[in-house]
Design a protein that fits this description.
With 411 residues, this protein is α/β, with parallel strands linked by helices. The chain is built from 17 helices and 14 strands. It is globular, with a radius of gyration of 25 Å. The relative contact order is 0.11.
């Protein structure tokens, strides 16, 4: 099992090559929870996630043996970029095998860091198989989580947290294959045995939770999730014993809870976190972890590599779910000033218009009428309800997006 000695050695080894990321207090989250909440911002790490730590430790421990053939890894995202950045810093070549479904933006980012990218496999397991074949040609294979040298590198987050904030009572960590939480738990429990370590998984892929219940790693069905960085169907054979011995609890967060946490981090701390990175906040806010009032809590915000288009969709859906985006349609008389009269009601109620679509000539729209679809930003559900009531009181018949969806289902 990885020891504190291994992690301290890794800390010294990788220090010139990685960023000692900040630990930032959040007044907003602290007020919401009654605890003193700090964020460990691995979003500011090189390549945008914690992955560069473990990869750097692995490569530096195996230099100069890797200089001739380089390194190889399989990943659809953060591990790929972490390995490439670590390899470039060490002056060695890197080859990254990515599955066919890896996003174009992540493929290009990986190439941009200097890797040779090989697209192979319809699953990450198939990509790992191809990477294994390349490793047999002489390249050093860097596993994303199930490797003691990688685990020790990730554990440097734990030593940094307790060196900077020794009064920490609880650390909440996202869990996929288990390399990150295994390293942090090994470091933190050695430095402060009474500390609690909580793992968070997406409800769509509860592999670590199921493994702990079964007493050994088990394969689960990995459903699609916005927390794709922790979508790992089976935790590692080397990480599992550490999880079993040192992690106090593993809890789940739903897709909606993770999306809302991403939005909260963006609006209140100006932090762009990927789904996996926001999972600890989601679990803290959903009440699945008992947090005593006044205790000191650290959330490991593990990465910020989220596709821009996906992030935009997640934010909008979260705002709509909270009632902060209101979509509705009305039929208006086709005459000058009709639209202005409607919008004046919205303005009086303090709604902010985001989008208007004015449609004529649809089959169900009377000849002398027009359908207007409006999208507003509101302060929340109560404000949205007030706007709708004011429009209805003025004699308009409105149909919200939710009502339209129900009609379509019934039809």
């Amino acid at each position: 099992m990885v020891s504190l000695v291994d992690i301290r050695a890794a800390e010294q080894r990788i220090a010139p090559h990685v960023i000692r990321t900040p630990l930032v207090y959040s007044p907003t989250i602290s007020t919401l929870t009654g605890a003193r909440v700090f964020l460990k911002l691995e979003t500011l790490q090189k390549a945008g996630s914690f992955k560069v730590r473990g990869a750097t430790n692995k490569i530096l421990l195996n230099c100069p043996a890797v200089r001739e053939h380089g390194v190889v890894a399989a990943s659809a995202g953060n591990h790929a970029q972490g390995v490439v950045v670590a390899a470039r810093a060490a002056g060695v070549r890197s080859t990254i095998v990515m599955p066919s479904w890896a996003s174009i933006s992540k493929q290009e980012a990986t190439r941009g860091y200097g890797a040779d990218v090989v697209i192979s496999g319809s699953s990450l397991e198939e990509s790992i198989g191809r990477a294994g074949e390349l490793a047999r040609e002489g390249r050093l294979f860097i596993h994303p989580y199930d490797d003691d040298e990688v685990i020790a590198g990730q554990g440097t987050i734990g030593t940094e947290i307790l060196d900077d904030l020794p009064e920490t009572d609880l650390i909440m960590v996202p869990v996929g294959g288990g390399g990150l939480i295994a390293g942090i738990a090994a470091a933190a429990k050695a430095l402060k045995p009474a500390i609690r370590i909580i793992g968070i998984q997406a409800a769509a892929c509860p592999s670590a939770l199921e493994a702990i219940a079964a007493g050994s790693p088990v394969r689960v069905t990995a459903r699609p999730t916005i927390a794709d960085g922790i979508r790992v169907a089976e935790c590692g054979s080397r990480t599992f014993p550490i999880l079993q011995e040192l992690v106090d609890q593993v809890v789940l967060a739903t897709e909606e809870e993770i999306a809302d946490a991403m939005l909260l981090l963006l609006e209140r701390k100006h932090v762009v976190a990927e789904g996996a990175g926001a999972a600890p906040l989601a679990a803290l806010l959903n009440g699945s972890v008992g947090v005593p009032k006044g205790s000191t809590v650290v959330l490991v915000i593990s990465g910020g590599n989220v596709d821009s288009a996906q992030f935009f969709r997640i934010v909008r859906q979260s705002m709509a779910r909270q009632g902060r985006i209101l979509r509705f349609s009305v039929l208006l008389e086709d005459r000058p000033g009709a639209l202005a009269e409607l919008l004046s009601i919205v303005a009086e109620q303090g709604g902010n218009i985001l989008h208007i679509d004015h449609t004529f000539g649809e089959g169900e729209v009377p000849v002398m009428m027009a359908r207007v679809e409006v999208e507003l930003e509101t302060r929340g559900r109560e404000h949205a309800g007030s706007i709708q009531n004011a429009i209805r009181d003025a004699g308009y018949r409105i149909q919200t997006a939710e009502e339209t969806a129900v009609l379509h289902v019934q039809e």
